[in-house]
Structure formats: C-alpha cells, structure tokens
Amino acid sequence: MISGFPLTVSDDRFGAWVCGDRQVMAGRPDTLSGLPIGVKDVIATSDYPTRCGTDLPQAVIQALLEKDEADCVSDLKQAGAIVAGKTVTAELATYQPGNTVNPLSVAHSPGGSSSGSAAAVAAGDVRLALATQTAGSTIRPASFCGVYGFKPSFGRYDLTGVLATSPTLDTLGLIANELDLIQAADRALTARASLSEETEAPLPRRLVLYRTSNWAVLPAEHQEQIEKLAQRLATGFAEYREQDALPDLEALTGHQRTVHAGELASELGWLVTQHGELLSDTFKGFVTEGRGYAGSVLDAAIRAIQIARDRANEYVRPDEVWLTPSVTSVAPPIETGTGDPLFCRQWTALGVPCLTLPLLSESATDLPYGPQLIASQGADRRILEAGRAIMKLVGDGGDR
After folding, report:
1. 291-314 per-position pLDDT tens digit
2. How far apart are CA 89 and CA 86, in angstroms?
3. Catalytic choice (105, 114, 137, 329)
4. Catalytic site residue 113?
5. Does the annotation count 40 as an active-site position?
6. What's the distance, Cα to Cα, between the start and end of the chain in Å?
7. CA-CA to 190 of 20 to 30 Å: which in 232, 245, 311, 352?
8. Which candidate in 105, 113, 114, 143 is catalytic?
9. What's this model's pTM, rounded to 2 decimal places?
10. pLDDT band per the 50, 70, 90 thresholds, residue 4
11. Catalytic residue among 40, 77, 86, 151
12. 240: buried, middle or exposed (CB in 10 Å: 19+, 13-18, 0-12)?
C-alpha cells in the first residue's frame, strides 16, 4: 500500500479500475464541472498512484513519468473534472492485457491497451475517461465496448506526465458515452495552445468510403453493414465518393508496427535488462522485435511516416470525412487477447484525427463494432461536429 492513497474500489464488477473512489464515480453531470473521470494507468495524477499495469518499483514508475501529475489531468481538473480513479491498462500500454472484461459480454475482451477506460465508460461508472493510442489503443476498445472513442491529431494534446512508448506515434485519447463530453474535454485540453483551426468548424462537404487493402479481413456481414451505412450517411453530405486503396497509405500499416516496436525498445527496453523478472514474455518479445529494427530500418520507417504526414491533406482533404473500418471484428474472446489494431495503424501513423461511433452490431452476437471517421490533420473539431451530425442523421442509435 502506498501511504496517502485510497487504493480500492468496491464492487468493481468488470475489473476496469486499478484504484479509485466508488462514491465519486456516482456523479452524473453533463459538463466537465463536477464530472468524475477515469484516468488510464499510464497517466500520472496526484490523486492516485500510477502503476502502468506492472509490478515495477514505484521509483521506476516515477522515473518513467517524470511528473506527479500529467498536464492533461491538470487541464481537465482546472475545467472542473474530478479524478474518480485509475483505469486498467495493458502492461506498459502494449499487448499483455490486464484483468478487465467487456461489460457488454464478460466472456469477451474490452480491447486494449485502454481497456479499463473503455470498460468503465461502458459500465456507467464514469462518462469520460482518458486513454492513449500508439497503434489502436483508444479506437479499438471504444469500438468493442460500444462507446465513443476519439484519437486527435498527433501533437494536439500535451503528453507531459504520460508514459512515453513511441515519440513518433504516442497520442492521448478520449473515451466517453456522449460526444458532448469529448468536445468539452477537447476544449479544456487545447485551452493552453494557440490553435489555428477555425472556431465554427464547418461540416465536411464530402463523405468518402475507404475500404483499405485489408477489406477482405472483415466478416462478410460487417462489409455489407459498413457499405449500407455509407449509402445511408451519404444523404447527409453534399457529395459522396468511394476511394480505392492508396499504396502510400497502406504502407503506413507496416511502418507503424516498425516504429512502434523500434521506438519502444529504445524508450523502455532498459526495463527488460534491469527488471525483466517483473515483465511479461509478451512485452519482452515486443522489445526483442523492436531491437531488430534499430538503425536504418527504423530510420526509414520514421522518414516514411514523416513524408506521409507532410502530404496528409492530399490524401484526406480538408472538405472530406472518410468512413473506414476500425476493428477486424467484434470483441474477441477474453482468452485470445485484446484484438488486432490492423485498421487503426495507418491512421495513427498518419497523425490524423479518428473518431469511432457506436453505430453497428453483429447479428450473431449483438456485440458492437465501430466504424471510424477520419479527417484531415488539424480538423479535430470538424470531425467531432461531423460525428454529431451523423448520429443525429441515424437517430443516435445506428443499426444496433
């Protein structure tokens, strides 16, 4: 036990919480003022200890985070939010899952690595939670748990006090049960910055269906539902088109994997050397993979990502919003892991904003899945407004 911190949450039905205050979680305001929030356990807060999903010594955790409270937490608290507790993360925000289950079906995964944040929102413990994304760690769990997930443009939110795993890719994310709360949190998290984005954020004129080169991975029913959804949503836009897979965009999927593993090995590989007995074989294997990319292979992948980001608005134009899959299927069985981030990798690498909406569900299981919207770099407010318009168009219930 760490002196001065409340470490237990009573009645933690779905394993979403590392520590927190159940009484605080009971609040239900519709604004950030007085709103209880969850904080992923790789994000420092003075309210509760941070463990990063590990048994590492507290001194090591402190060295990794370098700050007692992350700037993003301070910003939300300044706006009136109350930290209800720390939510479970996969080990060091990678692939070894924690003990969280999916509140919609406890035999299934809530996704990862922001598993606890998605589960806590889906369970109704809190309405908003902080997450992170380096591959698909915000979008995927939100999709699996039937809630809203938002990954902003790269660099939009301050990462001071957040565990660093990949400087090229790491992004703070938001998971909520209402888009209004994501928009309010976005305003609070960008209040310090001077952003050039337009204030009114006009809606995109054009909807684009982008299947990607991995479309065949999706179950046939998912393919059909996403295509039908695109046709339905097209009525709310001035223009609609379908975009064939673009080789440069598709190549980002592999580059993301290389950079994620390579930079993680550089940032956190020392933990394996000094504290390997406290870490999973999954994490150690990812570090070993990343060490194999050191040098020219990693450098080339980083350059390819940087070049793509420089051209990002040539792919996804400022007057467009793209509709694309977010997950390969519904939440997998809990024993198989956190699911595949395949459909998130390229967009995380491109650094554009992504928003998953609780619109679709699988007939056989009734479990939800994405899809996600993609917008041009910096069009974060625009994609959130597009999400609101889409949910209004489908009557807030989608095809679930």
Report:
1. 999 999 999 999 999 999 999 999
2. 9
3. 137
4. yes
5. yes
6. 43
7. 311
8. 113
9. 0.96
10. low
11. 40
12. middle
